[in-house]
Design brief:
Blueprint lengths: L17 H6 L2 E2 L6 E2 L4 H10 L13 H23 L5 H12 L4 E2 L6 E2 L3 H18 L6 E3 L8 E3 L12 H21 L2
Antiparallel strand pairs: 1-2, 3-4, 5-6
Helix pairs in contact: 3-4, 3-5, 4-5
Amino acid sequence: MTDAPDPALAFPFIGGRPCLDFVATLGRRHSTPVERLPDPAALARWIDAAGLGAAPPPVRVTARDLADARALREAVYGLLRAALAGREPEPADVERVNAAAARPDLAPRLGDPPWTARHPARAALSTVARDAVLLVRGPLMERVKKCENPDCSLLFLDDSQARRRRWCSMERCGNQAKVAGYRSRSRAASTR
């Protein structure tokens, strides 16, 4: 997690892939959504925190970059949800992700910063789009899961040896589930 002015807006970096972490910038999708990219400065913070900064922090982000980022995020989410459900993705999502992936991405370099790009924000988004394409078309897609906490909408790459991971993170949702289970068992035992 990264620091944010409001702790609820902290970025969770627990997805295991840049595209999954990027999708997590909109939390609680199925209830009251939490927008973690409310302004260009937040997107600049995410890019830097994700290690995709191509200039001394912060990366310069425009309002258009922010709008493009949010649209890309939703297209990537659509692709991932379609792949998880075993169905064809929406053509508009495919088109948006492919267009972003076709732009110049970050070029690695020795030294600091570790990346270079003519347009750092767009290049970072291109890198995220390429990661999504590689994930959806590759063998690791079968290891992508949705957190089983009903209040959480995060997707993650299950890198556990047994492939039985249920929570986005034990520190977040796994611990909450254990506490809730314990309380439920305690209440049931006290009513007997």
